[in-house]
Amino acid sequence: MQLFDLTGKRALVTGASGGLGQAMAVGLAEAGADIIAVSSSESRETVDQIRSLGREAHFIAADLSKEELLEGVVSEALRLSGGIDILINNAGIIRRMPAADHKRQDWHDVMALNLDAVFFLCQLVGSHMLQRGNGKIINIASMLSYQGGINVPGYTASKHGIAGITKALANEWAGSGIHINAIAPGYMTTNNTAPIIADEKRYNSITERIPAGRWGKPDDLKGPAIFLASSASDYMNGHVLCVDGGWMAR
Ligand code: NAD
User: Fold this and answer.
1) Domain named Ketoreductase: which ranges (predicted)?
2) I need a labelling partner for 225 at 20 to 30 A (CA). Which of 6, 86, 100, 211 fits?
3) What's the pLDDT score for residue 43?
């Protein structure tokens, strides 16, 4: 299992206070990594779970949609950890509204966090990884990196953008030892999807279309995150890995 061993690695995970980010942060810690969790909301539960595994955990509170804060977040993460080997750009929001009524502020809020912050964090952490000549970056994409979705045009645009920058940066950085890939989760039970889960008709019609016959749980992302963060994926660059119970195969 050495291929998947993350002992001694330091991972910065955004949006790790709950949902998918929490599960991936804890998953990396189970594989041996120390974690810097960055979130706009309290992450005590995540930090406690990681420390109970005997790993180091730090929390940085920050609203990552504020571009001017990003440089400080990365400096603080480097100060706390001494280095960043793994970056998971997971923090993301969704605003549901038909395209014709989609507010400009909603569009800008979604883009600021889901796309701008991801690119700038890739740049800031990537420059440090480039100096060292190694690093693993995992961006969290979506089925809406491929499909159009309904009533979420800003979100769809941001997640198509995630697939694009993941490939663009892989082309530039793969030769310098930086692995940048993405995970595209299918329908997972978190706060992000709570309104769909509450709509019984929509929930059932989605479940029926999933070949695996069930929605994903946050823990379903632990394995894929460990894989893309570890040397098990050392010949993977610019890939968007669907973890979707077969949704995209249908
Ligand atoms: P969630 O709402 O449960 O968690 C989002 C996390 O992001 C939280 O930790 C929250 O504190 C943090 N966050 C929100 N706004 C922030 C900000 N401005 N600055 C810093 N942190 C902020 O959602 P989730 O379902 O766990 O989503 C995580 C990622 O997975 C998102 O990028 C989302 O688009 C993506 N995704 C989710 C699903 C799904 O079905 N749940 C499917 C595909 C992709």
Assistant:
1) 9-176
2) 211
3) 87
Nearest CA to ligand 1 atom 42: 185
Q: Report whether 164 contacts 180 (CB < 8 A).
A: no
Kindly give the distance from the C-alpha atom of residue 90 to the centroid of ligand 1, in angstroms, as a whole number.
Answer: 6
| Alpha carbons 124 and 126: distance in angstroms, whole number | 5
Determine the average pLDDT of the residues in 230-236.
98
Name all domains of the chain by residue range, CATH numbers in brackets.
Answer: 2-191+218-242 (3.40.50.720)
pLDDT digits (tens, 9 = 90+) for 59-115: 999 999 999 999 999 999 999 999 999 999 999 999 999 999 999 999 999 999 999
Pick from 40, 159, 210 the residue to mutate for probing ligand 1's pocket: most ligand atoms within 8 Å of its CB.
40
- For residue 92, report the distance from its CA to the centre of ligand 1, in Å: 4
Q: Is the CB of 63 under 6 A from ligand 1?
A: yes
* pTM beyond cutoff 0.90: yes
